Amino acid sequence: MKTILIVDDVEMNIDLLTQLLEDDYNLLVARDGAEGVNLACRNTPDLVLMDVSLPVMNGYEATRKIRETQAALPIIGLSAHAMKSDIDQAKQAGCNDYLTKPVDDNLLFAMLDKYLG
Question: Is the pTM of this model over 0.90?
Answer without folding.
Answer: yes
